[in-house]
Amino acid sequence: MDVVLTIAGSDSGGGAGIQADLKTFQELKTFGTSVITALTAQNTCGVQGIYPTTPEFVAQQMTSVFQDFNVKALKTGMLFSTEIIETVARILQQQTAHIIVDPVMIAKGGAALLQDDAVHALNTKLLPLATVLTPNIPEAEVISGVKIRNEQDIFNAAKRILQLGVKCVVMKGGHFEEADTATDTVFFENGSSFSMETKRINTKHTHGTGCTFSSAITAFLGRGFTLHESIVEAKKFVQLAIEHPLNIGHGHGPTNHFA
Ligand code: PLP
Questions:
Q1: Contacts of 117 (CB under 8 A, 6+ apart)
Q2: What is the pTM (predicted TM-score) of this model?
Q3: 134 catalytic residue (yes or no)
Q4: Which domains does the chain possess?
């Protein structure tokens, strides 16, 4: 059984964060382990509270996992602070596992899941170690410093991000509200790229889609799929999850990992 890891925040509502990651890992036939960076009091209506873990305890959890398991691939999600990012990056420097970075910044309801001053640490400490980065448009803008209004801007932002040392960047197009398709474009360090276009689904039940997508890439990479295959298969998994809403809770319902 291939072991994978998520280093992320807990969502008490079960739709995003660690909970979405572990459900995805399980559905995709991998053994999921977890390092919790922060607790959130959260449901489908929003984030009511955040309680970060200390960097020391993040390190202790990572050591426990790495001492016992051969982790094939891992993802990072909500990392919250400069101190936690620096700790995670320091320990990951000694690892050979594929590293997928989901640069979680702001929840759909507006809660800040990454402190503003932590972007510098993300860019300089963690991204040089990353196999894959999965930003949405607002996250790509913050990381690259490029204001994105059209396809050329997406290309320019991706180029800047690759210069930070990331091997592959998946630019998630779902935040372009006017388009009736949702196109994700994947850029590799060797200059090649490809696009994945899907019909836009009009739904408010998208809580945790980013977490689910990045953990699905992690699971497929952990099982030995190529990078290209892992991204394409993860996209299919997330698309099915969005197409079959669960109707749980009173707000933005969670993606459906059973779909
Ligand atoms: N809460 C946690 C702990 C997360 O890691 C994430 C991931 O992006 C979110 C919330 C965001 O949820 P949403 O998809 O509703 O923006």
A1: 82
A2: 0.96
A3: no
A4: 3-243 (3.40.1190.20)
